[in-house]
Amino acid sequence: MKTKIMLMILVMFLGIQGVKAQDMERKEPNLQASYEIEIDAPIETVWNALAVDYGGIGKWASGVNHVVEFSGEGGDAKRFCSISAAGFNDTRERVIKWEPENYYFEYELYEGLPGFVRYSINKDKLTPKGDKTIWTSYNDMRVGGFMGLTMKWMMRKQLTKVLQNKAEELKHFVETGEPHPRKVEIMGKKVSKDTKMRKKIAVVEVEQKIDTPVERVWEIIGEGFADVADSNPNCPYSEWSSGHNEPKVGAMRIMYMTNNREKKYFVDKIAKYDPENHHITIEIVDKKGFGNLNIDYSWVNMDATKISNNKTLLKIRFNYLTRPRFFKSLAKAPMRKAFQRYAHGIDYHAKTGEKVTEQKWKKIRHLYK
C-alpha cells in the first residue's frame, strides 16, 4: 500500500512539474527584436507580396532556398521552407493570426527550431503612408536552458539583422520586381556549387523490356507522375505536393517511403517533361528520414522507347552524390536494386493494371529472377 501511495504522489508531482514546464513555454518572450522600413509601393501591393503570397517567400528572401510545401490560405496557411543558411534546419511555419483589414498577421515556427528555443513568433504590420507603406516586423522568442540564456545577447543582435535583411529584400523585390542582390548572390553560389558537385556524380542505370505499347508506359512514368506508388514497391503512398495537380515542368510530388508519412519521404520535382519523346527528368528537391546517409544533387532520367507496337524499352538513369563522399560506392548496389525493383514494378503494373505494393511484390518477385 505504501508503495502505491508513493507512486501516486510521484505521478502527481511529475504532472505538476509538467504543467509548470508548459506554463514556462507560454510565458512572455525573453528575447524580442524589431525592424521598420519604408517601401515605395501601395499598401495592397506590399500586403499581397508579404502575406497573401505567403508561400512565395522563396522568390525574394535570401534566407529561404524555396518553399517545399505550401497549403491553405490566409489564417490557415502553412509552409515548409528549405533554409539556405548553413547550420540551420528547414522550418515549418503556420499563420496563427490573420487580420487583413488591419494589414496585420502573425506566424509561428513550429518545427526546425533549436532545442533551447521554446517558441518563435513573427508579427508583421503594414501602415499606409500616402502612396508608400511602412512595414514593421517583430519577432517574439522565448529561450531557455543554459545555452539559451548564455547566448541570448548574441541572438538578439542576430535576430535584428535577420529582420533587417528580410525587410530590405522585400522592399527591393516589391519596388523593382527583381530579387535583392543578396538573394541573387546566394542563388549564384548554389548554382556554382551544384555545377562543381555534379562533376562527381555517381550513376545507376537499369533497363526493362515491357510487353505493352509505349503510350501505356508513358501513362505510368509521365502522366502518372504523382501516382508513383502504384508501380513502385518501395513507396507505399504518393501524392501531389500542395499547389500542384498536373504533370509539367516545376510540378512536385511527395513519395512516402514508409506508412508513417511524416517519418521518411522524398519531394520530387519535374525538371524536364517531353511527352512527344516519352522522356521525363525528375529532381529530388527535399528528403527526410535517411539518417547519416545524405543523398544530394540527385535526379532521375526516365525514357520509354518504342521497340514495336506492343513492346517498349524502359531506361532509368539515377544520378546522385552522397555525403560523406565515400558512401557513394557503398550506396550503388542498394540503389541499383531499388531501381531494378521499380522497373519490374512498372512492367507488372503496365501489363496488369494492379498496384504493386510491398505485399504484392513478395508474391510476384519470382517472375523477375
Spatial gap, N to C terminus: 65 Å
Number of domains: 2
Q: Major sheet, described briefly?
A: 7 strands, antiparallel
Structural class: alpha+beta
**What is the fold-level CATH name, i.e. the topology of the largest domain?**
Alpha-D-Glucose-1,6-Bisphosphate, Chain A, domain 4
Give the CATH H-level superfamily of the largest domain: START domain
Number of helices, counting only DSSP H or I runs of 4 residues or more:
8
> What percentage of amino acids are in beta strands?
35-45%
**Reported CATH architecture of the largest domain:** 2-Layer Sandwich
Poorly predicted residue ranges: 1-25
Radius of gyration, taken over Cα atoms and rounded to an integer in Å = 25 Å
The topology string of helices and strands comes to HEHEEEEEEHHHEHEEEEEEHH
Question: What this model shows, in words?
Answer:
By secondary structure, the protein is of the alpha+beta class. It folds into two domains: 161 residues, Alpha-D-Glucose-1,6-Bisphosphate, Chain A, domain 4 (2-Layer Sandwich), CATH 3.30.530; 172 residues, START domain (Alpha-D-Glucose-1,6-Bisphosphate, Chain A, domain 4, 2-Layer Sandwich), CATH 3.30.530. It is built from eight helices and 14 strands. A seven-stranded antiparallel sheet has the order 1-7-6-5-4-3-2. Helix 6 crosses helix 7. The longest helix has 26 residues. The N terminus is likely disordered.
